[in-house]
Design brief:
By secondary structure, the protein is of the alpha/beta class. The protein has 20 helices and 15 strands. It has helices spanning 45-54, 72-85, 101-114, 128-136, 161-164, 169-176, 193-197, 207-217, 227-233, 247-256, 269-281, 297-303, 310-318, 332-335, 340-344, 358-362, 372-375, 388-398, 417-426, 443-449; strands spanning 2-8, 17-23, 26-32, 64-65, 68-69, 91-96, 120-123, 154-158, 183-188, 200-203, 260-264, 286-290, 324-328, 348-353, 365-368. The structure holds iron/sulfur cluster. Iron/sulfur cluster (SF4) binds at residues 9, 11-12, 14-16, 43-44, 46-47, 165-167.
């Protein structure tokens, strides 16, 4: 029977909707969802790929144990045996960022109950936990409704919004051309799509520098900042932030607008913090939204916010603290960049994946996993592919544990306002350790992973 089903792309926090034609569980066609108030049916290249992946040749569809096809009971039982043979706490876990909140909750339980507190992480390709921690920190600012972005008088993009979520560009350009005096203001490096399309751009060595420059300029445009922000900015009012562009004009346009949408599209938590402070400083006319690379990041982190990140798992492998690792849904070897070799040398490596990649090539256990539309039940998965949750539950059962419930999420510590302002004024660098629980913890790793794991 032919059915039309609704689903969505999960490759960034816009979560663009689209429709799938499904015949007896098989995807046979993609239809754009023109009724969507945010995207009007648009999908970027990544969104179109989400459909094409569903029936791309070469899917892994059967578990492999040491290169030999196996049934699931045998694969899970042998993997459980090998985990139990390793010293307690020496098998790490990495979960793909396309996990559901329930799978993230299960992964937290699995790490605690079956891996004895070994380093475990969610493999976000960017800096989602830090970004979301800063976006949620006080002061409260109304969240931007993307369906109404086109009606804003001023859109302030901190970072390359159009590169992260190109489908949003139409709404932002609607806003820019909506009325005389409207503006699209870009804050960041002088590069990328948003910089090219913005009517006003304030560019500097980093997004954080440009954001601080605008924030500092706002009181002069006739608005007063919250007292704690003003106090934090005061020591740096004369600092040369080396920002190019029409700073007073941008501040005036923002302060004088009836409605301003401040959208952070940055992996730098300092820049995200400052973007939110810009919205707060503009008062009731402004709203704020932080965008990330993973659609469900907020829900996933609410279910499980691990203490470690991928860099910490890789470092544990490099330091000899790990004897094994389970990577479900993330090509951890590639994501670890120059340090991927530390994972391939582990005596025990299990890789859950849809397609072959460097991690499956090095793994003794290869576990076929479902894509998003398959685990959400929209289409049927090929062969014996299963979800991360199904695999973790089965593996736990083989280890004599029954996983249930959802652990409480640990809290990351967001930066204070003075910390963010000081960091932006004094340093042009990107993310730095220590502000949140899940920044890459080691400076050498952070540098090596730049552009690979933490952009
Ligand atoms: S903008 Fe984001 S959610 Fe939309 S199609 Fe592209 S990657 Fe997917």
């Amino acid at each position: 029977m032919l059915e039309r089903k609704a689903t969505s792309c999960i490759h960034c926090s816009l979560a663009c909707p689209y429709l799938l034609d499904v015949e007896d569980g098989d995807p046979v066609g993609l239809e754009y969802d023109a009724a969507s108030p945010v995207t009007a049916g648009g999908l970027c290249a990544r969104g179109n790929l989400a459909y094409e992946l569903l029936r791309l040749p070469g899917r892994l569809d059967v578990p492999l144990v040491r290169g030999q096809p196996a049934r699931w009971p045998e694969a899970l039982s042998r993997l459980a045996d090998e985990i139990e043979r390793q010293p307690a706490g020496s098998v790490g876990l990495v979960l793909g960022a396309d996990a559901t909140a329930e799978e993230a909750g299960l992964a937290g339980r699995f790490a605690a109950e079956c891996l004895s507190g070994a380093p475990a992480a969610i493999g976000f390709l960017s800096n989602e936990p830090a970004v979301l921690a800063e976006a949620a920190a006080a002061p409260d600012v109304p969240e931007t409704r993307l369906a109404e972005l086109g009606k804003a008088n001023v859109v302030i993009a901190v970072g390359d919004l159009f590169a992260l979520a190109p489908v949003i560009s139409r709404r932002a350009l609607d806003a820019k051309y909506g009325a005389r005096g409207n503006a699209l203001v870009y804050l960041g490096r002088d590069e990328g799509l948003t910089a090219r399309l913005a009517g006003m751009k304030l560019t500097g060595a980093s997004e954080r520098r440009a954001a601080l420059a605008l924030l500092r300029e706002l009181p002069g445009a006739g608005k007063s900042l919250p007292a704690d922000v003003s106090r934090a900015i005061e020591p740096f009012t004369k600092a040369d932030l080396a920002v190019k562009g029409p700073l007073p004009a941008a501040a005036k346009a923002a302060a004088g607008a009836q409605s301003v949408a401040v959208i952070a599209a940055s992996v730098d938590p300092v820049a995200v913090r400052l973007a939110k402070l810009i919205a707060a400083a503009l008062g009731p006319s402004a709203s704020f939204l932080a965008m990330t690379e993973a659609a469900g990041a907020r829900e996933i982190l609410a279910a499980w916010r691990p203490e470690a990140d991928l860099a910490a798992v890789v470092k544990a492998a490099m330091d000899g603290r790990l004897r094994g690792a389970i990577a479900l849904g993330l090509d951890a070897v590639s994501a670890a960049g120059a340090y991927g070799g530390a994972l391939t040398k582990l005596p025990l490596l299990a890789a859950g994946a849809c397609f072959d990649n460097p991690t499956t090539k090095a793994a003794g256990f290869v576990l076929p996993v479902k894509l998003w539309a398959e685990k959400s039940g929209t289409v049927v998965a090929p062969g014996l592919a299963h979800s991360y949750g199904w695999i973790l539950r089965g593996l736990a059962r083989e280890m004599g544990k029954e996983l249930a419930g959802r652990p409480a999420a640990a809290q990351a510590r967001p930066m204070s306002i003075p910390e963010a302002v000081k960091a932006a004024a004094e340093s042009a660098e990107g993310p730095r350790a220590g502000w949140t629980a899940r920044e890459p913890s080691d400076p050498a790793l952070r540098a090596a992973l730049a552009g690979v794991y933490v952009a």
